[in-house]
Amino acid sequence: MNSIFDKVIDRSNSASFKWGYNKFVFGTDDILPMWVADMDFQPPAEVADEMKKRLDHGIYGYTYIPNSASDAMINWFMNRHNWKIDQSSIVYHSGVVPAISTAIQAFTEPGDYVMLQSPVYAPFFEMIEKNERVVLNSPLKLVNNRYEMDFEDLEKKLQKGVKLFVLCSPHNPGGRVWTKEELQRVGDLCLQYNCLILSDEIHADHVYKPNVHHPLSALDKKYEEIVLTCVAPSKTFNIAGLQASACIIPTEELKSRYENFQRRTGFHTLNTFGIIAMEAAYRYGESWLEELLSYLHQNVAIAKEFIEENIPSIRLMEPEGTYLLWMDCRDLNMSDEELNKALIEKGKLGLEPGSKYGAGGEGFVRMNIGCSQEVLLEGLERLKRALA
Question: What is the model's pTM?
Answer without folding.
Answer: 0.96
